[in-house]
Design goal:
By secondary structure, this protein is α/β, with parallel strands linked by helices. It is 50% helix and 14% strand. It contains 13 helices and 11 strands.
């Protein structure tokens, strides 16, 4: 063997060993396993939120399967590990890595969080997804939570919700004054401006409060989930359509430090599983709400009707006032609102040619 050949072989062996050494940390990291905890604002067994296609438990199962078992998430319902509405602080402190809820529960922390669940008289399911995924909304969501050391992403959507259940008929905006109503988020502030005594109650507490007269009206989600809670047994007037939540986003809230420790492929697994649940959950709602609404009207004696035009107009005016006040107080809220409003204007112009004619000219119901 010549000297040159020996030198080449020796050099190749060294290079191969060096390559193996350099690649080893990446291989080891790719095989690393993670065990996370995820809490929820909703009780164990709650349809849509905790059970069924696109729910928190479904999301955890999808992540487990897609990651080949490298990322396992233990899911806790409201009250199992922490109280229902303390997920924000639990994720922020690192007590848990994830929380599954709705961002408008955190408007007391930052008003801008409202926009990533639903805005009164805002975008529908197609529109909110367009803004979040392709209109800058997702980046703004993470910017809003950056000071708290968290990121978030959509992981579910109810589609359009219902205005809610009322013990008495609403004939004018004057009928709202003095009502005690369960209603979260920005809509609660709007109702408060009209004299409503607003209550923020977890889902499991709504029926007993409505039945006992602790509250006079309540908003939850839609026909299927509302029927599951038995709200039709405590009130018969069911007003449509949800001016306050034309599409309601479920939020996957994640501790940023924990997120940074995940390999890129596992981050991609979480992002894609959440996106899948976002679409799948909304599809589940469409089928189940259609069936439940039919039952509520035909078999349960429920009176379903839209709010009077005067009430809607009053709610629209007050919503604009409340948003303007919030925007004036906080630069971050203004930044998010400006982005949302600009996107909504463009989307609604397009919808005038697409969705609008579909509902007004094609649908025969």
């Amino acid at each position: 063997m010549t000297q040159t050949r020996r030198t080449l072989l020796r050099s190749g062996s060294v290079a191969a060993l060096a390559g193996t050494a350099l690649g080893f940390p990446a291989i080891a990291r790719a095989q690393e396993k993670f065990s996370w905890k995820m809490t929820s604002a909703y009780g164990k067994g709650s349809p849509f939120y905790m059970e069924g296609p696109g729910s928190a438990t479904d999301l955890a199962k999808r992540i487990d399967a897609m990651s080949g078992g490298r990322l396992k998430i233990q899911v806790f319902g409201a009250g199992e590990l922490i109280p229902a509405l303390e997920g924000f602080d639990a994720v922020r402190s690192g007590t848990v890595e994830m929380n599954h809820a709705n961002s408008y529960f955190w408007t007391g922390k930052t008003f801008a969080a409202q926009y990533f669940t639903a805005v009164p008289f805002g975008l529908n399911f197609q529109g909110i997804n367009g803004w979040l995924y392709d209109g800058g909304g997702q980046a703004l969501w993470n910017e809003v939570y950056a000071p708290f050391g968290m990121i978030a992403m959509p992981c579910g959507n109810t589609g359009v919700q219902m205005t809610g259940w009322f013990k008495k008929e609403i004939k004018s905006s004057a009928d709202l004054k003095g009502l005690k109503m369960r209603i979260p988020g920005l809509a609660g502030r709007v109702y408060a401006e009209l004299g409503v005594d607003v209550k923020l109650l977890p889902g499991g507490e709504i029926f007993p409060a409505l039945e006992r007269g602790v509250i006079d009206a309540a908003e939850f989600v839609g026909p299927f989930q509302d029927r599951k809670l038995g709200l039709h047994n405590a009130a018969k007037y069911y007003y449509t359509t949800g001016w306050h939540e034309s599409a309601t986003v479920s939020e996957l809230l994640i501790n940023k430090a924990a997120w940074g420790k995940l390999p890129k492929d596992l981050q991609a697994v979480v992002e894609n599983a959440a996106a899948a649940c976002n679409v799948i959950s909304e599809a589940w709602c469409q089928r189940n709400n259609a069936e439940a609404m039919d039952d509520l009207i035909k078999n349960q004696g429920v009176i379903a009707r839209p709010l009077p035009d005067e009430v809607i107009q009053k709610l629209r005016e007050v919503t604009a006032k409340v948003i303007a006040e919030a925007v004036a107080k906080d630069p971050m809220t203004k930044k998010v609102n400006d982005s949302y409003a600009a996107y909504q204007k463009k989307y609604e112009a397009w919808a005038g040619y697409s969705e609008g004619p579909y509902h007004s000219k094609i649908v025969s119901v």
